[in-house]
Amino acid sequence: MKICFIYHSYSGITRKLVKKVQADCGGDVVEVVPRQRYNTLTAYTLGCMRARNGECDPIDPEVIDVSGYDLIVIGTPVWAFRATPAANAAIAALRGAEGKKAIVFATCGGSPGETIPRIREALAGKGTRVIGEMVFAKKDTEDEEKVAALARMIMDAAEGS
């Protein structure tokens, strides 16, 4: 089974988690990057407002073709209880996602709020079925057992297809 990890990372926490899990599971990695970078002030003002509204930022890559993959793993930080605008844009940029399975995860300092349900809904709109989800508080990203649980979830999904 071919796995594609797609994620946005503002502070590096989500990136670090993806690298750990991808090292265990294999697969390809696509990091989405907003074309207009946020600084600390704009992330907590404009970025959070855009996240709350479910908006998308212009990103690179502009299109993410997942037609050659069986499993999509999507990760995002949580801003204002929602996925980041770059993560929203990544889902909007998916091509060839119909009939695919997905696992989603979020990294957050507190509550993930509506992050996972909204990602699940957006992926359903792409014809993609979410079969697993996890939330990581910042301290959880260093918890080897919790990181291993995400890797197991991905490997189980990969073996089950």
Largest sheet: 6 strands, mixed
Total number of domains: 1
CATH topology: Rossmann fold
Give the averaged pLDDT, no decimals: 96
Please tally the β strands and state the result.
10
The value of Rg in angstroms is 14 Å
End-to-end CA span: 7 Å
Question: From N to C, what is the helix and strand string?
Answer: EHEEHEEEEHEEHEH
Overall 3D form: globular
User: What is the overall number of helices?
Assistant: 5
Q: How much of the residues is beta strand, in percent?
A: 25-35%
CATH architecture annotation name: 3-Layer(aba) Sandwich
Proportion of helical residues: 25-40%
Mind telling me the CATH superfamily name?
Flavodoxin domain
- Under CATH at level 1, the class stands as Alpha Beta
Low-confidence stretches: none
* Secondary-structure content class: alpha/beta
Describe the overall structure.
By secondary structure, the chain is of the alpha/beta class. It has 5 helices and 10 strands, in the order βαββαββββαββαβα. The termini are close together. Helix 1 links the parallel strand 1 and strand 2. The protein is globular, with a radius of gyration of 14 Å. The model has no long low-confidence stretch (mean pLDDT 96). Strands 1, 2, 6, 7, 9 and 10 form a 6-stranded mixed sheet that branches. A two-stranded antiparallel ribbon has the order 3-4. Strands 5-8 form a two-stranded parallel ribbon. The protein has a single domain, classed as Rossmann fold (3-Layer(aba) Sandwich), CATH 3.40.50. Helix 1 packs across helix 5.
